[in-house]
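Look over this entry.
=====
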Amino acid sequence: MNTVDMKFDRKLDVKGRKILYELYKDCRSTSNQIAKTVGLSREAVDYRIQVMEKEGIVRKYITLVDTPRLGYLTYNVYFNLQDCDDAEEEKIRLYLVNHDFTKWVVSCSGKWDIAVAFAARDTSHLNEMLYNLTSLFQNKIKYYDILSTLTVYKDADISLVIREIITNPKKGFPTVPPQKLHKLDDTDLKILSSLSENARSNIVDVAKKVKLTPEGTSYRMKKIVGEGLIRGFRAVIDVTKLGHLWYMMLIETAPLPPEIESKFEMFCQMQKNIFFSDKLLGKWQIRVEILADDHQHLNKVMREVRNILSQHLRSYELIVVFDELKQVSFTKGMMTVNKERV
């Protein structure tokens, strides 16, 4: 954390944090709607949003798409690099950020240097992508672990940034594809693509991109949302600029009894410092992402996690997240492949 980040965090008052939360909850809320909620004028809200965008607090606006319904599962891959100078590591990062099927890329420290979420149709598709990556960067990727998300215990939640407000817990959801996949026509795909580039775009701008009337575009958007394919619209926020440290715990457990798993899920939903948590298939069974004020605060949250899991905890690994390089939900690759499938 540099001094510039900490200085800006002190300037982000209660009103600013409330605006930030409204953008995170639904970034398609209009400035007028946000103004009524936080008790400011529309002009004041617009100005504050512009400042947060300029300072990098708000990085972008994304559309949350239920990608399993399009036939894509998310695979989390953790990479350990070797014999890389800064330039070589940057090449690997750029390759992953620009990849058509990566949803999330972060740089980290500890055992792992980069963590990536790939969207893949199946394990063969994932294997092909990893083969291409390791072939391109031979001898630079020492090893990697693959973890598949089975269930999200707690969807990403930044209620921590507003300590004065108790928000409803973010509940989880399964990530297994349904028996029947959702098919979209070319126009719906273009709407999803446009909203994925900027979820705060107004209807008129989206309509121009997809070559429809604003009324037709609005109708299609409401239909897609109503069918549950779009789960929401969210601001991507740089939590480190709010004065928080970002950690990931990868946890190995014995098989959890249903009552313990249910208790742990509820704990994650109610613990405001737990940013995200999911159930995994692979070497590790649970992932917990924590936003902490300092190392002592981190230890407190980790102790609570260990106490909940108790004798079922076998081991865990702690990862420090330095920078989020990419976050999307609907990837460019989904656009191309789904066109071919429709």
Q: What stands out?
A: Residues 69-157+240-327 form a domain with the Alpha-Beta Plaits fold (CATH 3.30.70.3460). The chain has twelve helices and eleven strands. The longest helix spans residues 295-309. The longest strand covers residues 313-327.
